[in-house]
Write a structure and sequence with these properties.
The chain is of the alpha/beta class. It folds into two domains: 7-200, Rossmann fold; 207-291, N-(1-d-carboxylethyl)-l-norvaline Dehydrogenase, domain 2. It has 13 helices and eight strands. The chain has helices spanning 7-11, 25-36, 48-69, 74-86, 94-98, 112-123, 141-145, 179-191, 207-223, 229-240, 246-253, 255-268, 279-286; strands at 17-21, 40-44, 88-91, 103-106, 131-134, 154-158, 168-173, 195-200. The chain has an eight-stranded mixed β-sheet with strand order 3-2-1-4-5-6-7-8. α2 packs across α3, α3 (48-69) runs antiparallel to α4 (74-86) and α9 crosses α11. It is globular. The protein binds 1,4-dihydronicotinamide adenine dinucleotide.
Length: 302
């Protein structure tokens, strides 16, 4: 009956109920996409107030989606929003949410100890079949997984911001992740309407491993006096076809986040010139100029 499918793809169980922990920028976006594609989602955060804001954010984002998708059928659009929101429940109790989940995906603060504590606790409460995954940008998946006894059912699912817009998901397998788990995560990403790529558990996976050193080199080029920020941004947009220049992109991502990622990598690999620190980046971060979110980074924002 299943001729043509690889045996592992057949074995990989479909993910229907998802617990997403962390209702911030990323978690809310992932919850929106999962609920929009018919998954039953429990969104978990530390307080009801935060969760109410997350759901409001999802509703606002859905309204923008519907405006385009159902331009001439506003009632159908409203119906779609209600249907999607029905697929989302909220909870401050990660343990009980995990008990009925096929997948527990974490998008909380980027801190190894806190992520380990969370998964270590949930490992004792979640059913045996439940897959655990992290959306971390910079921490090794195997370090996070080490607090659990389900190394074979642990992987990475790295989404991009804003989640409803960005098509890519990096699926990360550690040396202990089973083929079945990896296939489930690939299939889940496709079920969300995304395009998955397979990654090893190496610093920055694919996208950030190429993007972060590129941005740092743009900053160093500017520090050497070899180009203005504006000219470098124009050059990369018009010459390389990138939608944003490296300074615009840094301000969008957040200079604090960029520094955090680079510091983590250079700590592990201090001799790698690609990970060498930038004085300009360090200074801006020390002054609290994190980019768009604080109103100033490389550029000023209103
Ligand atoms: P955020 O700060 O917007 O959201 C984090 C949320 O987690 C907050 O609502 C916070 O209250 C909640 N939280 C913190 N500790 C918790 C705990 N122990 N239990 C339950 N909830 C908890 O952060 P953001 O930007 O959504 O990032 C989350 C994760 O996603 C991080 O690991 C980050 O590295 C990763 N990531 C971020 C991207 C981005 O562009 N912002 C892109 C891809 C991955």
């Amino acid at each position: 009956v299943c001729r043509g499918l690889s045996s592992s793809a057949v074995r990989a169980a479909a993910i229907k109920h998802v617990t997403i922990i962390g209702g911030g920028q990323m978690g809310a976006g992932i919850a929106q996409v999962a609920a929009s594609t018919g998954h039953s989602v429990t969104l978990v955060d530390t307080s009801d107030d935060i969760l109410k804001k997350s759901v409001k954010g999802i509703e606002g984002s859905l309204k923008r989606v519907v405006k385009k998708k159902f331009a001439d059928k506003p009632e159908a659009g409203e119906e779609f929003i209600q249907k999607v929101l029905q697929n989302v429940s909220i909870s401050t109790d990660a343990g009980s949410a995990a008990q009925s989940s096929d997948l527990v995906l974490e998008a909380i603060v980027e801190n190894l100890k806190i992520k380990q504590d969370l998964f270590g606790r949930l490992d004792k409460l979640a059913p045996a079949h439940t897959i655990f995954a992290s959306n971390t940008s910079s921490l090794p998946i195997s370090d996070i997984a080490s607090s659990t006894n389900r190394l074979d059912r642990f992987g990475g699912l790295h989404f991009f911001n804003p989640v409803p817009m960005m098509k890519l998901v990096e699926v990360i397998g550690t040396s202990a992740t089973s083929q079945e788990t990896f296939d489930s995560l690939l299939n889940f990403s496709k079920a969300l309407g995304k395009t998955p790529v397979s990654c090893k558990d190496t610093p920055g996976f694919i996208v950030n491993r190429l993007l972060v050193p590129y941005i740092l080199e743009a900053i160093r080029l500017h520090e050497r006096g070899h180009g203005s920020k504006e000219d470098i941004d124009i050059a990369m947009k018009l010459g390389a076809g990138y939608p944003m220049g490296p300074f615009e992109l840094s301000d969008y991502v957040g200079l604090d986040t960029m520094k955090f990622i680079m510091d983590g990598w250079s700590e592990k690999d201090p001799d790698n010139p690609l990970f060498a620190p930038s004085e300009m980046l360090n200074k801006l971060v020390a002054e609290g100029k994190y980019g768009k979110k604080t109103g100033e980074g490389f550029y000023k924002y209103k």
